[in-house]
Amino acid sequence: MKTILISEGDPTGINYELLSRALVPLQKAAKSHRILLVRGDHNQRLKSFQTVSEIPQSPGLYAYTYPSVSASEDKQVRLGKPSEVSGRISYSSLILSVELQKKIPNSHLITLPLSKEWVIRSGVKDFRGHTEALALAYQRPTFMMMTGKRLFVIPLTTHIPLKDVVEELKKVNTKELILAISKSHLLKKPKIGILGLNPHAGESGKIGNEEEEILRPMMHSFASAGFSIEGPLSADSAFLPTAKKYDLYLANYHDQGLIPFKMIEGKAGVNVTLGLDFIRVSPDHGTAFDIAGKKKADPTSLLTCLRLLVSLK
């Protein structure tokens, strides 16, 4: 029996509305899968999820609920009003989901959006995001891959200041990245395009030498491992409709890859973590505190996450 764990993310955002709007597909999947929403005992609830405090032994739709808030704190869990309490709840759900995943064979993970700001304010000072937290929890390099109908994009560096990108690029574990791509269920010997860091991919060193000093050695490693890789590509034209298409794009920093990805894929994209022995996916959007409780949340990305996990052999 396959298990799908769902960390609740920040309960004051749109996550519970997403789950409510995805209820019919969730119920359909729960006929053959054990689906566990890992949540605190706060006031945001879904009646269709059976509340449990132990791991059930049969398929179904469950809310695995743990003590998380006092009575006074529960009053602070209000839609559209994030706080240190909601930040702590979202982080606790993630950590407990990881603990459960390690215990449950054939289990995979959907992480609903949380706020890095409010997790940090709650006391987790070194929190950088889901991908980095999973790398720490499983003690292995992890890589973010944005996955859509038409595009697959891996940012080689993730949630860091732009001024630190060059130094972080030098630290990319190319061997582990190649291994993670090779083991992915979603990629089969992809043709890879790597974006240049500098405008016009550096113009042969006229606008920077990172392409020659950092990216070309990385490309050589991929080629030596049997991958088809081309570049460095000028990032300002790599995603144009007339540009050559690749199965996978390697971007140098977060926004270089995610801006075109989100413009092209819209709400259908999902975030997949490579480098783990299971599949972790997340909707490609944030907590949307500004529309929480206004019945405007679009579950498209969550549904894509669910379909991806259900389709796994």
Offer a concise description of the structure.
The protein is an alpha/beta fold. It has helices at residues 15-21, 23-29, 71-74, 84-103, 116-121, 130-138, 165-170, 174-183, 210-224, 254-265, 300-310; strands spanning 3-7, 34-40, 50-52, 60-66, 107-111, 143-147, 152-155, 191-195, 228-233, 248-251, 270-274, 280-283. The mean pLDDT is 94.
Q: Mind explaining what this structure looks like?
A:
By secondary structure, this protein is of the alpha/beta class. It folds into two domains: 1-140 and 276-313, Isopropylmalate Dehydrogenase (3-Layer(aba) Sandwich); 144-275, 3-Layer(aba) Sandwich (Isopropylmalate Dehydrogenase), CATH 3.40.718.10. 34% of the residues lie in helices and 19% in strands. The protein is built from eleven helices and twelve strands. The chain has helices at residues 15-21, 23-29, 71-74, 84-103, 116-121, 130-138, 165-170, 174-183, 210-224, 254-265, 300-310; strands at 3-7, 34-40, 50-52, 60-66, 107-111, 143-147, 152-155, 191-195, 228-233, 248-251, 270-274, 280-283. Strands 3-4-2-1-5-12-11-6-7-10-8-9 form a twelve-stranded mixed sheet, with helices on both faces. The radius of gyration is 20 Å and the shape is globular.
Q: Which features characterize this protein?
A:
313 residues; alpha/beta; Isopropylmalate Dehydrogenase; twelve-stranded mixed β-sheet; 11 helices; 34% helix; globular; NAD binding; metal-binding; metal ion binding; NAD
Structural class of the helix and strand makeup? alpha/beta
Largest sheet, in brief, is: 12 strands, mixed
User: Which value, in Å, is the CA radius of gyration?
Assistant: 20 Å
Q: What is the averaged pLDDT score? A: 94
| Strand neighbour order, sheet with most strands | 3-4-2-1-5-12-11-6-7-10-8-9
CATH architecture of the largest domain: 3-Layer(aba) Sandwich
Taking the alpha carbons of the first and last residues, their distance comes to: 11 Å
What percent of the residues sit in helical stretches (DSSP H or I)?
25-40%
Annotated CATH homologous superfamily of the largest domain? Isopropylmalate Dehydrogenase
By CATH reckoning, the class of the largest domain would read: Alpha Beta
- Work out the strand percent: 15-25%
Low-confidence stretches: none
